[in-house]
Design brief:
alpha+beta; Diphtheria Toxin, domain 1; six-stranded mixed sheet; 5 helices; 26% helix
Length: 180
């Protein structure tokens, strides 16, 4: 993938942080919570690099899976698994909403799916050797941590702490995210 040099320069000028704490990830019951994906998403085009999407809040992870699963027909009725993970990163870029605007992401478009600009940003962050990206969630008022295990600098610690079954439909209904 060829990266926009102006975007690379903008991202390189932003401070990098370390992250050491717990994050949350909601998955289907049969999925390893540490399994990465190359199928693309908000922060990475398909087949460019592996990612692991997590949220800094329990509700953020549940909001993400509720959004995606509520789009399917028929909507899955099985329980989801909510995993608490321990993560320690070494070189993570943190973006706030004003950074997103400066990087060309229109605030009114941020909740849309398949946002090409956020995918360009995520791919560039990974290319710059960051092991992660902290960015605002599009689904809940919190931040998400996106990990880039393919990054040459990836040295993050990542382990599962707990796993619980969650009735995601009941949770989503209670939070006004879907209506059966």
């Amino acid at each position: 993938m060829i990266h926009d040099t102006a975007l690379l320069d903008q991202l390189e000028s932003l401070p990098k942080i370390t992250f050491d704490g717990q994050v949350f990830r909601a998955t289907r019951k049969s999925l390893d919570p540490l399994a990465t994906s190359r199928s693309g998403g908000r922060w990475m085009p398909a087949s460019v690099a592996s990612v692991l999407y997590t949220s800094l809040q329990r509700e953020g992870a549940l909001a993400e899976i509720s959004f995606h699963w509520s789009q399917w027909t028929p909507m899955p009725s099985k329980l989801a698994c909510l995993h608490t993970l321990r993560v320690a990163t070494h070189r993570t870029l943190r973006l706030i909403r004003t950074d997103l605007t400066a990087l060309g992401v229109a605030p009114q478009d941020y909740q849309a799916t398949n946002l090409g600009r956020t995918q360009e940003i995520g791919a560039a962050v990974e290319f710059l050797g960051c092991d992660g990206l902290v960015a605002p969630s599009a689904r809940w008022p919190c931040e998400n941590l996106i990990l880039f295990p393919d990054s040459t600098a990836f040295g993050a610690t990542l382990e599962t702490v707990t796993t619980e079954d969650v009735d995601w439909i009941t949770w989503a209904n209670a939070n006004g995210l879907i209506h059966e």
